Amino acid sequence: MDPWLVLAMIFFQASFLCEAATSRNSSCTKIYGESGLHARCTIESVEELSTILHNPNDVKSLSIVSSDLETIPEGAFRNFTSLVNLSLPNNSIRTIKGGAFSGLNHLQRLELSGNQLIEWEGNFTNSLPSLILLDLSGNSKFVLPTFLLKLRMLKEIKGVTWNDPCANCSLVKNHTLKEGEFKNNGVNIETSELRKGDYLVGNMGHCRVNRLEASQEVVGYANHGFFPRCLEIKACFDNEIRVTPLHRCWDIDNKILSIEFLIAPIAMILNLTVIVVTLTTRVLRRNVTMCLTSNMALSDFLVSLYTLILVCTRLKPYTEFMLFMKNLCNALGFIWLSSAIVSIKTSLILTVERYLAVVYCMQPSLRITRKIAFILVLITWCLGVSIAVLPLVNISVYDGNTFCIPIRPIKDIPHSYELSIGLSLWGIVLYFITIPFYIKVFKTVKKTEKKAGIKRDGTLARRIGALVLSNMIFFLVPIVIAFLWLTTNIQEVMSPQSREILTGVLPTILFSFNSLINPLLYAFRAEKFRKAIKIKIDYICLRKGRSTSLTSSLSGRLRGPTVSSNNGGGSPGRQTPELRTSRSVLSLTKI
Ligand SMILES: *[C@@H]1O[C@H](CO)[C@@H](O)[C@H](O)[C@H]1NC(C)=O
Ligand SMILES: *[C@@H]1O[C@H](CO)[C@@H](O)[C@H](O)[C@H]1NC(C)=O
Ligand SMILES: *[C@@H]1O[C@H](CO)[C@@H](O)[C@H](O)[C@H]1NC(C)=O
Ligand SMILES: *[C@@H]1O[C@H](CO)[C@@H](O)[C@H](O)[C@H]1NC(C)=O
Ligand SMILES: *[C@@H]1O[C@H](CO)[C@@H](O)[C@H](O)[C@H]1NC(C)=O
Ligand SMILES: *[C@@H]1O[C@H](CO)[C@@H](O)[C@H](O)[C@H]1NC(C)=O
Ligand SMILES: *[C@@H]1O[C@H](CO)[C@@H](O)[C@H](O)[C@H]1NC(C)=O
Questions:
Q1: Atom 1 (ligand 2) nearest CA
Q2: Which ligand neighbours the alpha carbon of 87 most closely?
Q3: Domains along the chain with CATH numbers
Q4: For 277-281, 298-302, 551-555, 564-568, which range has the lowest pLDDT when averaged over its residues?
Q5: Which residues have a Cβ under 8 Å from the Cβ of 308 and sit 6 or more positions away?
Q6: Residue 559: which H helix or E strand, with range?
Q7: Does residue 123 have its Cβ closer than 6 Å to ligand 5?
Q8: What confidence tens digit (pLDDT) does each residue in 82-110 have?
């Protein structure tokens, strides 16, 4: 081959390579818009800009795209003195040298998204004085240097990532988180509060608040006035902010409530006695007043049970209580609400029953018979249960407070206000309906004082009256407190502690105290019942005595009635007390 030809070929190839190397397009397109000159450039190195753009200080907006710039050198844009927007997306930038943006005194927006930024050498003492927005999204390995947060005019930094849950986060100056975790509590998370790192949120007039502890990063941003908006995402919020529920009145409440360890068990025993004795004694079972009273005793028993379980679980620390509060409250609140409704309705039925007995004593057909009473009691319970179901189907809630009572005249929870007002008004109306009945009853008793039958019924009516009155008082006092609390401004003058005692602890104690005195007000004052109880006690003592040692004197005392009343069948020893019971009660009713 001709050596010259070879040489020529080599030369040609070399020149071709050279051509290829420089033919890579470095160009700018210029657009004159209303906001000034916009240049969109594709370049190989930043230095080329000065050769392509001849009047850099006219450029308002500069985009550099599709360029593999790895480094932004110092003073790269020094001559672009009027630049407002600088966009450097998707350029594989790794390093920004100190002073890279020096001279850009009017720059407001700086976009660096989609690069592989690792290092930003900072000397920002006098740099970027007008910068408002900085976009760093898509630089997953970049750790935001503190000096960037110090830029005076900077309002937003986009795309900051410091961990997975809070990836691509926007830091916004003086932002306030208005929703999220505390949607229903009117709680805003403010930058100025986050700065403290550890603070209480919630209604400061309430006992229940939340303690917020923010992570170091969040506190760091907040210290410079930036709020990470990614806190609006639950995963990020949960990761960065620890929320601990606090109950500032827990201990003092429980101290006062400890009186329930005395009241509730006694009330349970007394009411259970009324129920058991009434159900097991035939004469009492047949007595409509006693049946209704034992229905009330049942609701009182349940209220005491509610109270006892409540105070027992409240012995736990508040945070532990919170863990199972939802389920606990659904159960306890259900018991309480259905019992309260039964109690109110039974008061009314008892009143009507006494009213008929006294005022219409000459018309024995006008009575609440056992059958009617039974149906009424059944209806009462159906009504109680069906209303108590409402909070379980999202009409108000049971776990709105730590007493699990759905009566809270506050409008924060859907329907809780309406349900509270509804129940209270209904209770008030039912109790006030009973008042005219009693007035009529006592007038009748006064008029016909001579007649023995009416007098006795009148005494019963007075006792039932006491029962209903105590129910009314113990029902109305908490309601009045609630209304005072609603309509006056005691909530502002009172400490959360005293308010919780007034609106939570006191009603609970009053309700259970009512359950305690209800059996004492009527059942235990009724002679029939006392007699029946005495017989029951005798019976129990007798059995006990017999099982331990069958003394001759006891068996002698037993034998008399046993023989005389043993009219065949069964074990005579077992039947005796039963028969004795019914006989003595029968004789009692004849008096
Ligand atoms: C450079 O860009 C121009 C217009 O943008 C185009 O016509 C030309 O083909 C490009 N040259 C190379 C080598 O890509
Ligand atoms: C800025 O402009 C001056 C002349 O006006 C020039 O000498 C200098 O190289 C330019 N600097 C850059 C970084 O383009
Ligand atoms: C800078 O960018 C923003 C948003 O893209 C735009 O509204 C504004 O007009 C731009 N300013 C200039 C001077 O180009
Ligand atoms: C940068 O690249 C991403 C995909 O990698 C693309 O969606 C985005 O539009 C690019 N940004 C610009 C300004 O070209
Ligand atoms: C930052 O730059 C200024 C001049 O612009 C200089 O005086 C100062 O020493 C620099 N600071 C650091 C930490 O480099
Ligand atoms: C980051 O968030 C912005 C909106 O703030 C969004 O436009 C962008 O696509 C996100 N980038 C990534 C990588 O998720
Ligand atoms: C942010 O809040 C601080 C203090 O609350 C205030 O001094 C500052 O001016 C606010 N900044 C903006 C941009 O609103």
A1: 79
A2: 4
A3: 22-161 (3.80.10.10), 185-247 (no CATH), 249-534 (1.20.1070.10)
A4: 564-568
A5: 260, 261, 264, 265, 268
A6: helix 552-565
A7: yes
A8: 999 999 998 889 999 888 888 889 999 99
